[in-house]
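Notes from the pairing session

We agreed to fold both candidates in a single pass and log them together. This is the raw record for the first candidate, unedited. Please don't reformat it; downstream parsing expects exactly this layout.

Candidate A
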Amino acid sequence: MWNRPGFEEELHAPCLAVPVCSDSIGAIAILFGPHENGNDIDQDECDMLSGLVTRAAAGYERVAFVRLSNGVTVVRASIAALRAATRRGAT
């Protein structure tokens, strides 16, 4: 475990958690950050956090799309290899 002076006190400090959600893939992550308490969040901070989680959700969606696309490419290559092997076996 990583340890440094003051680390123990920081573990007990108040923390703000903001969910990152996407309409297409649901709950994705939670962003955590230190905060005095949950009652001192002003409108500017709410707006900034809203924009941040929207961009974070878009980033997660992009990663999911790329991984899915890569998986489709692998499956298509496997199917093509199986078809080629079947044709060679038939001749």
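Candidate B (folded immediately after A)
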Amino acid sequence: MEVLAVAISNSCKDGKTSRAEVRRLLPKVKLTNSILGLPIAFDNDGDLFRGPKSGVTLFQIQSDGSYKQIAKS
């Protein structure tokens, strides 16, 4: 959520936003220290490529409402 919130905030800098703009900016958000206390970043496909080393499990909510585990440490 923190990555998404930063992408939304960045998209609003010009006073307007759209889902497409947030989606475009999402892979550009690289948190060196997230609210989890760990770095988090996603690639252009929305897959985790920099994340926690231990103690955290991240899930992605699928279009059918199910949860898919994307990282476990």
